[in-house]
Amino acid sequence: MTKLYNKSSEKEKRRQIRRNIAKAEKILWEKVKDRQIEDCKFRRQYSVAEFVIDFYSPELKLAIEIDGDSHFKNGAAEYDKERQVFIESTGIRFIRFTNDDVYNNLSGVLEYIAQNIRDLRR
């Protein structure tokens, strides 16, 4: 059986992304790390196959992606959709926010994440 999660071949890619974390991702990470939301553990820059997810809860199979400006340029939206479809096909729930969501409505983002966690635990 082929390993799908956090493949060692993707380790350096994950490490580079963690070193160059975007501002919105850093803001959200400070709010979700250390089980701060609904006592749910999240990992940063977790890979599923060759795709790296910003935040992932292995316990709940919940992925959170923050879309910055680059996600809206040069066909990136199509790539993101294909990536999301693949990740969801593995049984992972995928939720997505924009940088603006994090900057301008952080409490709403956190509540939406908390609601998804509660739903998945039912």
UniProtKB/TrEMBL annotation:
Organism of this sequence: Fischerella major NIES-592
PANTHER family: BLL0828 PROTEIN
Residues of the signal peptide: none
Domain of life: Bacteria
Name of this chain's protein: DUF559 domain-containing protein
InterPro entries (alphabetical): DUF559, Endonuclease_DUF559_bact, Restrct_endonuc-II-like
One Pfam assignment: DUF559
Residue ranges of domain DUF559 in the record: 11-117
